[in-house]
Amino acid sequence: MGRVPKLTRADAVAAARNPLAFIAARWTPTPRTVRRAAFAALVMSVLIVVTGGAVRLTGSGLGCPTWPKCTDDSLTATSEMGLHGAIEFGNRMLTYVLCAAVGWAIIAARSAKPYRRGLTRLGWAQFWIVMSNAVLGGIVVLVGLNPYTVAAHFVATSALIAVATVMWQRAREGDGAARPLAGKAVQQLVWFLVAASALLILVGTVVTGAGPHAGDSSEVERMPVDWENVTKLHAVLAWIVVTLTFALWFVLKAVDAPKGPLNRTRDLFLILLAQGVIGYVQYFTDLPEILVGLHMFGSALVWIATLRVLLALRERPHEEIGIPGPTAEAAVGTRA
After folding, report:
1. Is the peptide bond before 68 cis (omega within 30 degrees of 0)?
2. CB neighbour list of residue 261: distance below 8 Å, 6 or more residues apart
3. What is the pLDDT of residues 283-310, one digit of tens each?
4. 3-state SS assignment for residue 335
5. Is 143 helix (H, G, I), strand (E, B) or coil?
6. Rounded Cα gap, residues 57 and 290, in angstroms
7. Could you tell me which of 336, 333, 304 has the C-alpha nearest to residue 169?
8. What distance, in Å, lies between the first and last C-alpha atoms of the chain?
């Protein structure tokens, strides 16, 4: 092993002024490392949805009754607060793990050679969404789990998942100009699918906001809508998304589209079917907590799969010499 260079006073000053530039000047991550960092951020953004659902479904939403402290006198949960306090405080602590994952993604993207400005900006976008959503989460607690703030909290997390998904995909591509792999009509169909999926998620937050799982054992305000009717609307939208997905796969197959878009569309269709089964079972079994939690997890997977369909409709080649391209399996330009 070579000797580790000593840290001079000038190095310390440079690191304090611009730590990211200091690290980037001394470390070049492999493309695989950058991809793994982006994927870790995506996984944590989904995990925060799952743990947030656990907080809600166990009635632990006010386990820590204030924010940013857990109680007026304690920063952390105390033994007197029981399981609800531990679950709520644990979810808050997981935010720091999410920040660490996003931070790693930012550092890896910033240190890549050559410098990838767009990839780094996607990392910073995640950071600011996490920070704003942390504040919004505090507001949710301070207003006693108002259903509209809870819905906004989930929508912000969905935005985080969207940016993380884009960054993960961009980390697997080059920075060349995007080349479409499908015609304009197919692209419009996919955008309509994305819009329908986004609307499906939004209506899902209304279903939750009007439903019986208020997030706390005490009396919590619910959205003043008929839960049965909004649930039926949610189901109709789900069937619309399923139909659009099947139609898209049929069209892609008919026009001999590359394997990338076809495979991503197939993945989305299978996830939608599984999510639909969970949705109907939970509806006819009076919303058991475990199935509601699985449905929330499925919602995140549906959103990721939908965005991957959109991103698979183009390819971005590696322009710079020395940057390995994606594997043959990941390259969406291979014809069926």
Report:
1. yes
2. 181, 182, 252, 309, 312, 313, 332
3. 899 889 899 999 999 999 999 999 999 9
4. strand
5. coil
6. 8
7. 304
8. 48
